[in-house]
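[Automated response] Your request has been received and processed.

Submitted sequence:
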Amino acid sequence: MSGPGVTAGRSGGAVRPALWAAVRPSGPLEAATRVITAGLLAGSGYIHLHLYLDGYRYIPTVGNLFLVQEAGSFAVALLLLVGGALVLRLAAAGLATGALVGFVLSRTSGVAGFTERGWNPAPDALASVLVEVAVLLIVAAGLVPAALRLARRPARTVA
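Generated structure:
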C-alpha cells in the first residue's frame, strides 16, 4: 500500500500514516527544535496550571479549558522528548494556536461569557503569549528543513 499520506514502516514493510512518521533529524537543528518546543510547551502548561490553581478553576467552562490546555501541553511535551513524529509537532502548534486564540477571544468577544482586559493577569498573560508564539516559531523552524528534504525527493512511480 502506498500513496499520499502513507509511509513504509521499519518492520518488514509495514505501512503507517505519514503523520506518525518520524521527522528524521538531519542534524542538531531539528533535534534541538524538538527539545526546545517540548520545553516551551511545558512552560505553557505550567502557566495554565498556575492560573487554573490560582482561581481560573472557579470560572465555568474557562477553568476546564485551562485544565485541558495544561494537560495537553504536558502530554505533548513529554511525547516530543520521546519521539519526533510530525503529528506531535502539529499538536504542539495546535495547542499554542488554541491558547493564543483563547487569549484574543477573552479580550474581545469573550469565551463562554468570560472577558479580561489588557495583559492581566500580569505577568502570566504576557509570559503565556510569548511562550506560545515561540512554540509556533520553533515548530516552523524545525519543519522547514524536513519540508525542503521532502520537496527534493524524486517522485515515486507505481508500476
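Summary generated for your ticket: Residues 28-145 form one domain. The chain has four helices and two strands.
If you did not submit this request, please reply to this message.
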